[in-house]
Design brief:
Elements lengths: L1 H6 L11 H15 L1 H8 L5 H20 L33
Length: about 100
């Protein structure tokens, strides 16, 4: 599959030093998210449908891979800042288990 990725230009935008990591993580992604596609390739069923499925998988995975900032993405609206002069206060309560 590595040769196919390279000859089809699928990894042209991946930095050379990251190609090996891309391939390793892409295979893990396929094992987790696209088991049927990987199984078809293993069974030598390489056809236009498999190529289309791989194109779709590569597009999805590349977005994750190239994001590369290792931050956690949460689908929540950002919080608004507190108004000027408003102070927030948090409390911490320590719970000590009672001895029996």
């Amino acid at each position: 599959m590595s040769v196919w990725l390279g000859t089809e230009g699928k990894i042209d935008d991946i930095p050379i030093g990251e190609v090996r990591r891309f391939e390793t993580e892409f295979l893990q992604y396929l094992r987790h998210s696209r088991k049927e596609t990987l199984a078809s390739i293993a069974d030598n069923n390489w056809d236009d449908e498999i190529a289309a499925a791989l194109d779709s998988a590569i597009s999805e995975f590349k977005q994750l891979f190239l994001a590369g900032d290792d931050s956690i993405r949460i689908n929540e609206a950002p919080e608004e800042a507190m108004a000027e002069g408003v102070k927030g206060q948090e409390t911490v309560t320590r719970v000590v288990p009672q001895k029996k």
